[in-house]
Records
---
Amino acid sequence: MGRFSKGKANSEEAQIFQGFFARMQKFAYICSHKRTNPKNMKKTFMTIAISAAMMMPFSACQEAQRENPLLVESQQPFGTPDFSKIQPTDYLPAFEVAIQQKRDNIQKIVDNKKPATFANTILPYEESGRLLDRVSRVFFALTEADKTPEIGETEKKVMPMLTELENEISFNKQLFARIRQVYDKEFPTLQGEDKKLLEEIYKEFVRKGALLPEEKMERMKAINLRITDLQQQWGDLLQAATNEAVVWVKNKEELKGFSEADIAQCAKDAESRGGKAPYAIVIVNTTQQAPLVSLDNRDLRRRVYEASVYRADGTNKFNTYPLVVEIASLRAEQAEIMGYPNYASYSLEKTMAKTPENVYAFLNSLIAQYVPKADAETKAIEEYARKSEGKGFQLQPYDRFFYSAKMKKELLNVSDDEVKPYFDVDSVLVNGVFYAANRAYGLTFKQRTDIPLYHPDMKAFEVIDKDGKTKALFYCDYFRRPTKRGGAWMDGFAKQSRQWNQIPIVFNVCNNAKAPEGKPSLLTWDEVTTMFHEFGHALHGILSDCQYNRLSGTSVARDFVELPSQFNESFATIPEVFDHFARHCETGEPMPADLKERMLKSINFQTAYALGENLAATCLDLAWHMLPSGKVPSLEQAAAFETEALRQVGLLNPQIPPRYRTTYFNHVWGGGYAAGYYSYLWTEVLAVNVADVFAQRGALNPKTGQDFRDKVLSRGNTGDLMQMFTDFTGMAQPDASSLLKARGL
């Protein structure tokens, strides 16, 4: 990581130097931006420097000229973060300087005596936090993907600073007065992205409370600060709970059913987590766990399932319910202050769905069709299990995947162990994900080994457009480790912006198992589609062509942002693409035709479960956020509230639990999906409709790809999202009837 991140040899010297450097940077910045007397500035600066230097070790003085790499333009290709120079101790002083710079830039807008215009108010506001954006993007990439103790401690200090800054800006009456003047005078005459930028900025201020009376503004500020603190606690607690939920296994015999590669991974995971036993089964963020497919040992299956379900509900030393209850209460109060009956109504106003009523109408139509299919699926699995286990056998949720896999093997003659050798992670990436992007959009990918990375597992690729010009830089970080949170995601070190002359620098992160040195890392089909999914998000960033940073790439409503990603999954099953990446990891031979046919048929085998777990999680999210202020259950009532919420919508089914229970629902309590988890199903409808258009025109037809690129992927949030969908598909409204068909239901 950095020069002072390991060992004790330089630790004291490093602390002295870093503290001095941070203070000097901050003082120099203040001197250059505040109204400091220029006659005294040089003298004062030199006095402090000399005095401080006299107290420092000589070697630390030698380092005093070092620039914080986060505060200067990177000299790396395309301005990528220079992780060869960035040290953990650089982040806090960088945030201090960047936050102060944004404060000063905002003050310059406020102090402008000229009448407010788009040019002297909106454009400077868009530009005001450019340094802070750069620092934040690098830092928060690490808090998610490589959260070392040092990064975690810095995060605790940084989050309140950022929330305080956000409060200052959101409730700055003079600043909002100027923005409002521009909105009132120029909005009717502005065109294109200028008009959209003004609209987004104005409405953002209004939604945050800029029109509130003083006492309500102060309460909103306090709520914002408290929610930030609670979400920080949530992230720390959930990661600790998930890491602690590891299931330790004493002997290899208990792992019967696992492949040798799986057993080797368990041994590796045990070693990396302290070696309390020879083997360890690591828990991921969802309720169901992949090992339940293969484990013969029923008691071990039970232990794995219960470790997942009870990881943070107070049955052990971890309990996130207190955080859930308080966050839900504060969100409900926010909505009440803003004049909404509940947080869901407040949050959904800015989405395609618009209202909770529209979301529930959509969900209820799916639930009505889903429930009988789910019951039939459960009955079929239990009857199958009883053939070998006896008539009295009662199927449990930790049994379902095991017997479903056996049933699939018997009926379709296919298993994960049979197909995984054809899904090597490198082949899926290069010969699948990249190949599809090349065929559909004309992109090519060149690996760059000269660009510093934040972890050795990462790779970086230059993305070259069909005109031969560099379009973007793409990083991938696919293997799990204890410092990485669960799940898979896309983000970026920089968003595309013509205004800033900035190409997109985006990354995908997953949590796949890494094989031992010299062995290929093999994927399940679900992990294959996850890679295609996340790269769909990446394409939304890579192909962005917008004027303004605020509007570019994935800066769209939650119930639209998943459209490119879910649609991109469809490329994985296109025969030309599948045949190109599904090759044996040792021989390079393509998957045999009969195995391919059986595997593709198996994709939609017993898919009611996947839909049901998603519907249940979605309804839990909405239930918590439909509560009015003062009606959020107490800590003691929280678990019962979850049960009752599922019962009321007809989804209380122990065989098909929510994909995320309340206590580990990171999307909702730690992420940005509060009252928005429905968006995965909503956008799946959009994605299926888009895939149908591609199929009709030619799935890999470059003209179709260019059309989708021009009308959707490149446009960010520069226009009406439903109109973008209509422009490409020709459909006035999405057709939800195709969803169940696409899922094989």
---
Amino acid sequence: MKTAKYKIIYLFVIGLMITGLSSCLDDLNTIPLDEDELVSDVVFGSEIGPYQELLAKIYAGLAISGNSAGDGDPDVAGVDGGSQASFLRGLWNLQQLPTDEAHCAWNDVGLPDLNSISWTSSNVFIKGFYYRLYYQINLANALLRETTEEQLNARGVSASDQTQINYFRAEARFHRALSYYYLLDMFRNVPFVNEDSPVGSTLPPQIQGADLFDYIESELLAIETELLDPFVGYNPNYYGRVHKAANWALLSRLYLNAETYSGNAKYTESITYSNKVLNENFSLDPVYANIFTSDNHISPEMILPVRYEGAETQTWGGMTFLLSAMEPSDMQEEVNAVGAWQGNRARSSILRTFEKENLHENDSRFDMVYVDKTANIEIEDPSLFTDNGIPVVKYYNRNSDGSLPASNIAYTDFPLFRLGEIYLNYAEAVLRGGTGGDQATALQLINELRERAYHQAPYSITAGELNLDFILDERGREFFFEGQRRSDLIRFNKFTGSSYIWPWKGNVKDGRSVADHFKVYPIPADDLGANNNLVQNTGY
């Protein structure tokens, strides 16, 4: 994957990242750097290639953990490249394991604490995801510093190439906003750096959650007209790149959660940006399972994926993790994963979410919940995998027709944003009082989603059945194991406290209430110790 030029760019970016998190400085200083490679004019000139490759590095950071397949040469020092520095694996662990859906049987230090909502600021999985997000932010900052109009003109970059680089800049700003979105959602009050932050050992200031919300919002609105136009389906030149509809989808999600993040409801704005996506040519995939197969790049529902391309994106994190860590060993050949790792199972509460509908056996989404492959739907022993909890197999490294991809290395893309979410965002925002939408359309969208899910009628609900409790359950049925559940439970005030109890919540088999400070993760202890500008989140 790595050319000599790419290595130079990578080292240059690492040098620029010294402006980032202070606690990373010692790790970064251990990397041998050739001073000549850190001179921007040596790396960036009049050709578009280096700028394009730096953008590619930002995209790659969502899929793999380093600069070579198999998590070699990891980006984030001090944590394991495959299990702790992976964006997608980190997102899934932090969004799924503390909820009513998933449980990991492994006893790696830090994982049991995620299962039971009992983590501390020293949790290495929290730390790994936190630093992955800042690595992405600093990559984006580096690209933006090196692509100002003045610099491009001084280097003799042609007008046509500058037009393309302006798209790169907008995409980099989106990626930075996306990383800050996850920091806002999970950590709330965090260090803040952008392309204007001083390069050197200056400690970054802490930004409060409400102000970070405003910053993310302003960035996404500013680039709205500067991104590529939306495109549907697979185009090898553009598939996987950020476009206007991806930006609108993130705004739809951001505004839906605005009251949680800043105390100010913005459901009308969520409807506005949901409508922008709905007015494009995306459509629900006719077969729910096809959203999660190795040829899901052709799905008309995909808005923004994290791409996986076999050996070119080989990793122990990402989709390899989502394929291998879930499946029973007797399904390995059927799923076509690299192995059955015997790690993650579902809690019985995921079954209860489906059982709330008497016709759940008719729901194709429930086909992915293999109750018949366990002797006990309850997790009797948190450290056991076999016959302990419910197997869930949602992701398949096979094509939608059952054929195999080029190899058993992951080709299945992860749907970071897909149309089904926009349907449910719209309906929820209407029910919460947002304007610009109506309950009749909300009901229509929900029933279209259910028509796709169910093998046969009946599947429709009535207007009287469409309420917020139904929306939370339907999101559980539609998005289980897709890395959204924690945020949903928090938005519905079901994550902490005693209003909703599930098995092993609070490290008790039958579940118990947990304190409200667990709604946000702690700032990692080592970053807090290295930066005296930071104040730890309440309760830690």
---
Amino acid sequence: MLGAGAPAHAAPTGRALVLLEGGPRAQASAARAFLARTGARRAGPQVPQIGLVTVDVPNGRPFSAFARALRADPAVASVQSEGRMSLRATSNDPALRRAETALGTPPGTPQQWPAIRQRFERAWDFTTGAGALVGVIDTGVDGTHPELASKIAAAVDQDAYSDNALTDEEGHGTHVASLACATTGNGVGIAGAGRDCRLIVEKSDLSDSSIAASIVDATDRGAHAINMSFGDAEPRPPVQAIVAAIDYAYARNVVLVGAAADEDVSDQGQPPNILQPTGTGPDVNAGRGLSVTASTLADRNPGTGTGTQISMAAAGAFGDFQDPSGPPGLLGVAPAAPARRLDGGLPLMANTCACRTSSEGATFAYLQGTSMSAPQVAAIAALMRVQNPDLSAADVIRLLKLTARRPAGAWTPELGWGILDAGTALEASAGLDRRTPSSRARAARRTRARRFRVRWSHSDAAPPGLHSSGVATVELWRAVRRGRYRRIGSYARARSRLVRGVPGRAYSFFTIAVDAAGNREPRPARPDVTVRVRR
């Protein structure tokens, strides 16, 4: 579909939409009278049938103040900031539309059903992911594959037994990376969850030191999220080097995502049990990352990790592991060269399905398990960080949990906070204001008056495409001579205050703005202005 879409916060145009009272009865004469009374300047379509007048917001004047002035006119029914919608982000990747033909698949199910169930295209209405970086710590990638060749932002070999991060002898890393960031819209194969995101490939031999080094290196290279589709085979004490690396990344607002176990066990092993420690899963605010288990087309856990170390779920298998019907996993990219995970004669079980296929001349394969679930979550986390750069890792982690689709209506040991809903997650991150407002006081620097006026201005800018919550109050702080600063007032609407002064004294002022979301402007290092009252 190529139509006008409406993300939750459309980009502002700098104009205001004014609806006049009377709806269809508000004719052009009423609009002319309104413009004459208010001095507003018409700047766009006038639609008398519905009483619409489009006007310019004066340069330098906050929209909130301009809107208040217009609403004071008795003829005005409403005033809103005008936005601009965007074309729906669509994709021509065949797997999004082509029907899955495996026996036991419900009619009409597309090959890439996880993208539909988890609403990737709705997420792309908010951002296509340009600039998003996903770190993938795994077995490398086939850097020549048409779905990945243009997606490599960096490739680092942390594998003691390899000398090229852009090769993948296992096939696992290529498949995982493609689910996160496969080239989308190229008419080949699949669409990556992160659409236009790019990859920081950290090829690892999965030793503890290699994992720790990979986490730190991907963080230093600017990763917004890091995917880790691996874990301990048996429970063991925490590896402090990995804990330190996770702390290093989390402190830099990297969203860390770990794959839960591929068995129905309650201890997910490291790193997921570090990201979501035992007992913390039901707490939406707990954890330094996300421990992701698998879900099926029927919104069930197929037999993967459960318990209080589970944060959430994402598509990882078509059906239960014991059920032979349907496709044997999720469709993803496979290396063109032989790969042990795909061609080694491994038994048919989670993550070891030797099922190659092809699409438009490129190589693909089906694999199942939590390894396939985690990179989809990591990619959406990276999109959220780029869409709203003021969000912390904790913000993104919490929003992904809260927006997950919960078949049971609450946190459960089987699916955690629910199944990834990319569209709702991006909508929620667009609406979360974490940017601090700004303000500044001004006044004449010298005066003989015993009473002088201090004025201030303020703004609450938002990242492109998002809306700010607006300044709620401005605090005025004053110090006499070099004394201690004290707050002398807090104002919701006023833009100035008369202040008494004593001849021969100096008064320093600064303001602190607080917006409607509770973001508080930091105290400035120096006063905005110092006023000296002459004798």
